[in-house]
Write a structure and sequence with these properties.
This protein is an alpha/beta fold. The protein folds into 2 domains: 253 residues, Rossmann fold (3-Layer(aba) Sandwich); 89 residues, 2-Layer Sandwich (formyl-coa transferase, domain 3), CATH 3.30.1540. It is 40% helix and 16% strand. It contains 18 helices and 14 strands. The strands form 4 sheets. The chain has a 6-stranded parallel β-sheet with strand order 3-2-1-4-5-6, with helices on both faces. A 3-stranded antiparallel β-sheet has the order 7-8-9. The chain has a 3-stranded mixed β-sheet with strand order 11-10-14, with no helix packed on it. Helix 1 crosses helix 8 and helix 8 packs across helix 9. It is elongated, with a radius of gyration of 26 Å.
């Protein structure tokens, strides 16, 4: 695309960890200029280890880095200068932190009436609104961990799904507020949260209880609506998920694999029959799949149009032919100089994937340039560095 949708939109980020940066990452891939305000020395998220080592590179590509001491008056003034003409502010600190720093919504509304002020929080308004929350906290209290693990063993999902989805809802709210600003000419405060995001994701299970009168069971022990909807072993010690979700698919499956005896079995004629006789059916199907190597079985299932998926690990996606074919993976240079391929924004617009190859900004890499754009000369910038106001 010659012009990205959010070209000309300026976003100032006061964020850390995942949820807040995820909002800015989406907006950056859509074309916004995103400037991260980092503390002197850089955001602590940059140096996380273990399962947190991927947070910074995944959710901060394509952004600029400005290091400021916001507790100093001069640092505060620099940030206010940036915000005077900005379109969006994103923050995901504990309730009250932005107010203490002098960047609360009421102050910003007077400072820049057109500003969209986006807060990413643990909870929306209500009795819990001042609690400290994390992705895992709300997965537990919102019922997602209960639904993911086997009975008695709640298990968080295998990615930061609430942080990321909450960031998506934050981006949706920002885009909606920008659209509304076209009509009103003024900005507004929008808030997305971890807990309410979790509730939204488990809403299908709440609705299920309303329909059936019975509470939903954890996914590992749920009663599936379909008889064949599970993982099977293959001959070469791999695993594959296969779903057969209609009678037409069942007959296609039987014909393709030469299973005339199953096709004509009166106990297996309809989907509900097959669910009722699952103990009889599954061993027979499992034996068929066990006779194939996964590559041959995958090709056969794809040819006949059945839903299937080899069980993959995240590391397998680096070489996935589909992701590599049309810009599904973006080349990112990490601060240590290493190259990485990371997933692009999962949408197409006008037939194009969004997000370009980019480097991750070094700590304070854009500080001088940004201050120069605000009218600071090199001598003043050097003095501010000596005084510990910028980094």
């Amino acid at each position: 695309m010659t012009t990205l949708p959010l070209t000309g939109i300026t976003v100032i980020e006061f964020t850390h960890m995942v949820m807040g940066p995820a909002v800015g990452a989406i907006l950056a891939d859509l074309g916004a200029e995103v400037i991260r305000i980092e503390p002197i020395g850089g955001d602590k998220t940059r140096t996380l280890t273990g399962s947190g080592a991927g947070y910074y590179p995944m959710f901060n590509r394509g952004k600029k880095s400005l290091c400021l001491n916001l507790k100093s008056k001069t640092g505060n003034d620099i940030a206010l200068g940036l915000l005077k003409n900005a379109d969006v502010l994103i923050e995901n600190f504990r309730p009250g932190v932005m107010d203490k720093l002098g960047f609360g919504y009421e102050v910003m509304r007077d400072h820049n009436p057109a500003l969209i002020y986006a807060s990413e929080k643990g909870f929306l308004s209500g009795p819990y609104e001042n609690r400290t929350a994390l992705d895992e906290v709300t997965q537990m209290m919102g019922g997602l961990a209960y639904m993911t693990g086997p009975p008695g063993k709640p298990l968080r999902a295998g990615a930061s799904v609430i942080d990321i989805t909450g960031g998506m809802f934050g981006a949706i709210a920002i885009l909606s507020a920008l659209q509304q600003r076209h009509t009103t000419g003024v900005g507004q405060k929008v808030t997305a949260s971890l807990y309410e995001t979790t509730a939204y994701l488990v809403g299908q299970h709440m609705a299920q209880q309303s329909v059936t009168g019975r509470a939903a069971q954890p996914m590992p022990v749920r009663t599936s609506a379909w008889a064949i909807y599970q993982i099977f072993d293959t001959n070469d010690n791999n695993q594959i998920f296969v779903g057969i979700v209609s009678d037409a698919q069942w007959y296609t499956f039987c014909d393709a694999f030469g299973l005339e005896d199953l096709k004509t079995d009166p106990d297996l004629g309809t989907n509900n029959d097959r669910v009722a006789n699952k103990e009889k059916l599954i061993p027979a199907v499992a034996a068929v799949f066990k006779s194939y190597d996964i590559s041959v079985l995958s090709e056969k299932l794809e040819h006949i149009g059945l839903p299937f998926a080899p069980v993959a690990r995240p590391s397998d996606l680096f070489d996935d032919p589909h992701l590599n074919a049309q810009g599904g993976l973006i080349n990112v240079v990490l601060p240590n100089g290493n190259a990485a391929k990371l997933p692009a924004l999962p949408i197409e617009m006008d037939g194009h994937r969004l997000g370009a190859d980019s480097d991750l900004a070094l700590v304070g890499a854009d500080t001088n340039m940004i201050l120069q754009s605000l009218g600071y000369d090199d001598q003043v910038i050097d003095s501010l560095k000596e005084d510990g106001v910028i980094g």
